[in-house]
Amino acid sequence: MPLIQCPDCGKEVSDNAPACPNCGKPFSTVKIEEKKALVTRREGGKYEAWGFFLIVIGIFCFFGKGIYVPIGFILGLVGFIVFLIGRFK
User: Fold this and answer.
1) How many contiguous H segments (helices) and E segments (strands) does the chain have?
2) What secondary structure letter does DSSP report for 30?
3) How far is residue 44 CA from its own chain's centroid?
4) By the 8 A CB rule, do 52 and 84 touch?
5) Please, are residues 20 and 9 in contact by the beta-carbon 8 Å criterion?
6) What is the pLDDT of residue 84?
7) Exposure string over 59-89, b if 16+ CB within 10 A, otherwise e
8) Which of the residues 39, 50, 68, 69 has the least number of beta carbons within 10 Å of its own beta carbon?
9) Residue 18: C-alpha distances to residues 11, 26, 76 (Å)
């Protein structure tokens, strides 16, 4: 329970006090730490985009003919793995 200084009278007051006991000046009920908005930034957006791109290319190749079928399957599988890595990063 740290002590803060009253902006009006300069006396030390508990940071949990709703007002200064000396001069009666009310304090803000919201602490400075609570005012700061928590910004969460995900870093996996690029991986998700590349994974989605590989999945789409893999689907087109998978429904092709000949050698493109296994390539499409591999691209789709790799794209799915990359997408999942980006989702949970």
Assistant:
1) 3, 2
2) S
3) 10
4) no
5) yes
6) 94
7) eebbeeeeeeeeebeebbeebeebbeebeee
8) 39
9) 14, 6, 60
More confident position, 24 or 32: 24
- Report domain extents, the chain: 1-39, 45-87
pLDDT of residue 5: 84
Q: What is the mean pLDDT of residues 62-75?
A: 88
Say what the alpha-carbon torsion angle 10, 12, 15, 20 is, to the nearest 10 degrees.
-60
- Asked whether the predicted pLDDT for residue 89 surpasses 90, the reply is no
Cα-to-chain-centroid distance, residue 21:
41
Residue 54 structure tokens: 């590989």
Q: Average pLDDT of 54-58?
A: 94
Residue 4: count of CB within 10 angstroms of its CB: 13
Residue 14's DSSP bridge partners are: 3
Query: Of all residues in the chain, what percent carry a pLDDT higher than 90?
Result: 33
Amino acid letter at 13? V
